[in-house]
Amino acid sequence: MAEIPDATRVEATTPVASLAARLRTNLVRIAPTAVHLPPIWRAPRAQRLSAEAPSALAGDGIRRPSMVGAAGSLASVPRVPPTTDDLEAADDELWHALLHADADAVEAVSDPEIEVDLRPLGPGSYDDLIGGLRTGRLRFHELERSRRRLRIVGELATATSVVDGRATHEGVPRTARLRWVTTWRLGAEWVVVAAQCEALREEPARGGLRR
């Protein structure tokens, strides 16, 4: 607040008319006190945050790349490394489909260039496997797995098991203990690129998965 000059201070001996004139003169001299408020800051239009902008303004004023693309979709992120749990789940689904003669489910997890050789139990090719499951010429009555070993190397993996199997192929019953190797490749999901087995000399064990 501005201070009134000494000349305008009221003294007991000052005549009233003279005091009024002096007040009018000094009021003209006194400039009003300005109140300064901090300005409201607004980011330039080009720097305002937007879901469609290729970059965003951080709280410290530094522009950094945004994870949102021009179309509003998330930018590509590195694929999560595959785990044995994912592979084990895919392998279980394959065996369940084989045991229940679900040709569509087997096709869903198979690579177009898949190689199949399961001759100890009947089918010697992929077409023979799928055709046999669809027509009933091939049925797996029992599949018992033991000592399964999973190995992942990059985007390829193998599932190796000892299998006690009992099947009927083209009307001929077959029983065998096998070493079964399924090779998988990771794309959007795990897919089978090869399935092969060879007979072992051991006698088949009792029990296991049955239909």
What descriptors fit this protein?
211 residues; alpha+beta; two-stranded antiparallel sheet; 4 helices; elongated
| Chain-averaged pLDDT | 74
Structural classification: alpha+beta
Assign a percent range to the helix content: 10-25%
Query: What can be said about the biggest beta sheet?
Result: 6 strands, mixed
**Amino- and carboxy-terminal Cα gap:** 97 Å
Strand order of the largest sheet: 3-7-6-5-4-8
- Rg from C-alpha positions? 43 Å
Number of helices: 4
Query: What is the number of strand segments?
Result: 8
Percent strand equals: 25-35%
Quaternary structure annotation: single chain
Q: Could you give the order of the helices and strands?
A: HEEHHEHEEEEE
Low-confidence stretches: 7-12, 41-60, 62-78
Shape: elongated
Q: What's this entry about, in short?
A:
By secondary structure, the chain is an alpha+beta fold.
